UniProtKB/TrEMBL annotation:
<dbReference type="InterPro" id="IPR046884">
    <property type="entry name" value="MnmA-like_central"/>
</dbReference>
<comment type="function">
    <text>Catalyzes the 2-thiolation of uridine at the wobble position (U34) of tRNA, leading to the formation of s(2)U34.</text>
</comment>
<feature type="site" description="Interaction with tRNA">
    <location>
        <position position="126"/>
    </location>
</feature>
<keyword id="KW-1015">Disulfide bond</keyword>
<feature type="active site" description="Cysteine persulfide intermediate">
    <location>
        <position position="194"/>
    </location>
</feature>
<feature type="domain" description="tRNA-specific 2-thiouridylase MnmA-like central">
    <location>
        <begin position="203"/>
        <end position="269"/>
    </location>
</feature>
<dbReference type="GO" id="GO:0005737">
    <property type="term" value="C:cytoplasm"/>
</dbReference>
<dbReference type="GO" id="GO:0103016">
    <property type="term" value="F:tRNA-uridine 2-sulfurtransferase activity"/>
</dbReference>
<feature type="binding site">
    <location>
        <position position="125"/>
    </location>
    <ligand>
        <name>ATP</name>
    </ligand>
</feature>
<dbReference type="Pfam" id="PF03054">
    <property type="entry name" value="tRNA_Me_trans"/>
</dbReference>
<keyword id="KW-0547">Nucleotide-binding</keyword>
<keyword id="KW-0067">ATP-binding</keyword>
<keyword id="KW-0819">tRNA processing</keyword>
<dbReference type="InterPro" id="IPR014729">
    <property type="entry name" value="Rossmann-like_a/b/a_fold"/>
</dbReference>
<keyword id="KW-0694">RNA-binding</keyword>
<dbReference type="InterPro" id="IPR046885">
    <property type="entry name" value="MnmA-like_C"/>
</dbReference>
<dbReference type="GO" id="GO:0000049">
    <property type="term" value="F:tRNA binding"/>
</dbReference>
């Protein structure tokens, strides 16, 4: 097949491209220029938006022996990922930008362009598996598994995707890169959010949303306990950074329970109040099987799966949890998995819109 290898400049995408060549495919490498000014995003080897990354990708393509191009997708990335990230926080939610990047950039803008140019598929270095049955599965390296951030893809998009690294560990990838003579073999993994240059999310959001102060309110009594400098600086489940002068009656710490942008209010309470028994998601993508199923759900990146009963109706996914889960933030994804001897199968996903507290009275 004629395939396009998305090369970030990291070790995973370089080895994925090399493996695609070994498999007999006609491979062309492409680096996505995602920053309008590469110096304003990540620096060094921390992300996927730097000049260093572009050069690393080009050198890897030279070693592999494939054509290489740079595609400027900065405007699309800024609108679909960065602006979305900011607007989600402004609405009191906690987004996962990697989900949006996969959905809107790598497997929408890039895949659409690749297909228009006559390519059959896009190859990436994600740690996930696509079986011969076309089903998305977890990686064999559960510590690096990225099926959670790929679960937003549609069956059509998965039909034009290739993930050559799903059957190896990250240690295997680095060893293989070294054997192939790829200079990125020991390059550090990216961390945090690639478009926030110094990793300071609160500062980044404050520059774009302002620092309007508002009340921090106790959930039980309604009393104002303190003041914050911008609700966007908080997320559900957060404990640090509240700077409350009035301790709880029992002396235990308080946690963020909810954020209300309309009134610019942060509501706090005891850790037990973070327990939820139901999660409701919107914009559901269902990939496999019946839309009412007992399965497992993962509620945050690298979170522990929990047993649930899942129902999908008219684009809304409802997951009723067998055991309460703690600190689930709207804006994240709920991803449903079916345990399988060959690796957990991704059934579908949705963006978390709301939750039902374990302490809520029965309807």
């Amino acid at each position: 097949m004629k395939v396009l290898a998305a090369m970030s400049g990291g070790v995973d995408s370089a080895v994925a491209a090399a493996r695609a060549v070994d498999a007999g495919h006609d491979v062309t490498g492409v680096h996505l220029a995602l920053a309008r000014n590469p110096q304003t995003y990540r620096s060094g080897a921390r992300g996927c938006c730097t000049l260093e990354d572009s050069r690393d990708a080009r050198r890897a393509a030279d070693v592999i022996g494939i054509p290489f191009y740079v595609w400027d997708l900065a405007d699309e990335f800024h609108e679909d990922v960065v602006d979305n990230f900011v607007s989600e926080y402004a609405a009191g939610r906690t987004p996962n930008p990697c989900l949006r990047c996969n959905e809107k950039i790598k497997f929408a803008a890039v895949l659409d362009k690749a297909l228009a140019l006559g390519f059959d598929a896009v190859v990436t270095g994600h740690h996930a598996r696509l079986g011969a049955d076309g089903l998305l599965r977890r990686s064999v390296d559960l510590a690096k598994d990225q099926s959670y951030v790929l679960a937003v893809l549609t069956p059509s998009q998965l039909g034009h995707a290739m993930f050559p690294l799903g059957d190896v560990t990250k240690a295997d990838v680095r060893a293989e890169a070294s054997d192939r003579g790829l200079a990125v073999a020991d390059k550090p993994d990216s961390h945090d959010i690639c478009f926030i240059a110094d990793g300071d999310t609160r500062r980044f959001l404050g520059e774009r949303l302002g620092t309007a102060s508002g009340p921090i309110v106790d959930a039980a009594s309604g009393a104002v306990l303190g003041e914050h400098g911008g609700a966007h600086g908080y997320t559900v489940g957060q404990r640090r950074g509240l700077h409350l002068n009035r301790p709880a009656p029992d002396g235990k710490p308080r946690y963020v329970l909810s954020i209300t942008p309309v009134t610019n209010t942060v509501t706090v309470g005891p850790v037990e109040a973070l327990d939820v028994v139901e999660v409701r998601g919107e914009r559901a993508v269902w990939l496999s099987g019946p839309t009412t199923v007992d399965c497992q759900v993962q509620l945050r990146a690298h979170g522990t799966p929990t047993d649930a009963s899942v129902t999908v109706v008219d684009g809304t996914l409802t997951a009723r949890l067998r055991e309460p889960a703690r600190g689930i933030a709207p804006g994240q994804a709920v991803v449903a998995y079916r345990p399988d001897p060959d690796g957990d199968i991704v059934l579908g996903s949705a963006t978390i819109a709301s939750t039902v507290s374990a302490a809520a009275p029965a309807a």
